[in-house]
Amino acid sequence: MKPFKYIAFICLLVVQVSCTKTSKQITSTQDYNSTLEITENEKLELALADFNFWDEKLQKTPNQFPYLAKAAASQTQIFNSTGRIDALIKAENYLIEVNKSTNYEKSGYLKALARNYISQHKFKAALDLLKKAEANGEGLKGTEKMLFDVCLELGDYDSAKAYLEKIRKDEDFDYLIRLSKWSDHRGDLNAAIKYLEKAKVIADLSNLPSKKQWVYTNLADYYGHAGEIKTSYNYYLKALDIDPNDAYAKKGIAWIVYSHEKNPNEALRILNRISQNYKSPDIYLLKSEIAEFQGDLDAKIKYFNLYTMAVENPKYGAMYNKYNALLYAEDEKKTADALKISLEEIENRPTPASYDLLAWTYFKSGDYKQALKIAETHVVGKTSEPDVLLHLSEIYKANGKVEKAEELKKELLESTFELGPLAEQQINRI
Asked: What is the distance in angstroms between the CA of the first residue and the CA of the last residue of the chain?
């Protein structure tokens, strides 16, 4: 191509990209910039003050086990505000002590520890505690709601459905959000949104900030999955109106800026602001992906190494097993590690997503037939998660099942926002 033709081509390309970006523009820095500049965190300050109060009480009267539960609640709030794993583990230790002090006979304390274990992805341990709470009978409806949550996470769908029926109450907030989650599990996103919108009406009437914030961020996620990006963005903004320090909502906006608007620089700016005060390893992974999209190999490696160093902390336990298995599967020197983690996940949570990790590990190691066998037995027809379907399409293609891969490609092209620009490139190569 001659120089002047090349320049003309580049100019045309710039115009096309500019027009595309304009047509996709949804966000405005004016909407969220003020939340990125905030240096104070009222929730965190209250949680720290609350913890200091109860800790002082414990120092004076260490045999008062209710104080342990109060201190645990404060540490849980500190974790929610900062993402610091130490706070979650401190909360666990306090809750273990309070349950020991009450001989594991108080339903409320059992459920509090179960919630902590759910956050740590210790779902089997949470189930054991909830079964004790169920036998206890105190606050049974609340226990049954949590049992639905855990059974769904563990892939025990029959039990999850049974518990959902037990808590059935059509105008109840807790029932509606779980019916929404069940609908999403079944692949009915429209129903999931419908039921969560009903829950939002109840949350708005209750005027409880934490309840409203939870609904808004979850609706933002669902609408994003449905391709209604503007609505998703607006719900993230509504969550930030309630709590300007909501790192999850900011990360959701960063994803929209990156995946939908293809503006990696602004997405990284948002993420850098978040990570100043909120410490979560997965933010490094997202930064690494964005750097790869930019073609900045050095930055990609830097962020990847920061993630790796963070998750080496044993306190994270199984919380990042999925990410680690997928990353190790990409490295032929770490195939054994990917295989080990995948089998651990299947042991802990025999879900289609866990079996997908195992199938993908075999695929990346070149054992296409074993990958297909596992996928067809444990994954096909059991989930509609786009990342799993993307793996399945690759496995089909490698095994010569081109028509099935093409069928999934059509479906995946509707999920490019959720999967991201790098995955979109992968889909186009199917």
From this structure: 29
Q: What pTM value is reported for the model?
A: 0.93
Q: 């808590």: which residue's tokens?
A: 167
Would you say how long the chain is, in residues?
430
| DSSP symbols for 317-361 | TTTTHHHHHHHHHT-GGGHHHHHHHHHHHHHH--SHHHHHHHHHH
Spell out the residues 6+ positions from residue 170 whose beta carbon is closer than 8 angstroms to its own: 176
Q: Which pLDDT belongs to residue 24?
A: 81
- Does residue 209 carry a pLDDT above 90? yes
Question: What is the per-residue burial (b if ≥16 Cβ within 10 Å, else e) of 204-240?
Answer: eeeeeeebbbbbbbbbbbbbbbbebbebbbbbbbbbb
Phi, psi for residue 209 in degrees, rounded to 5: -55, -45
Quick one: pLDDT at residue 262? 97
Would you say 79 and 87 are in contact if contact means Cβ atoms under 8 Å apart? Answer: yes
> Per-residue pLDDT averaged across 309-313, rounded?
97
- Domain extents for the chain? 264-311, 325-428
User: CA torsion sign, 157 to 163 to 166 to 168?
Assistant: negative
pLDDT at 7: 35
**Local confidence band at 15 (pLDDT 50, 70, 90 cut-offs):** very low
Greatest Cα-to-Cα distance within the chain, rounded to the nearest angstrom: 83
pLDDT band at residue 80 using 50, 70 and 90 as cut-offs: very high
User: Which CATH number is correct for 325-428, 3.30.70, 3.90.1420, 1.25.40, 3.40.50?
Assistant: 1.25.40
Tokens of 264: 């990696």
256 within 8 A of 224, measured Cβ to Cβ? yes
Q: Which tokens belong to 201?
A: 């009406």
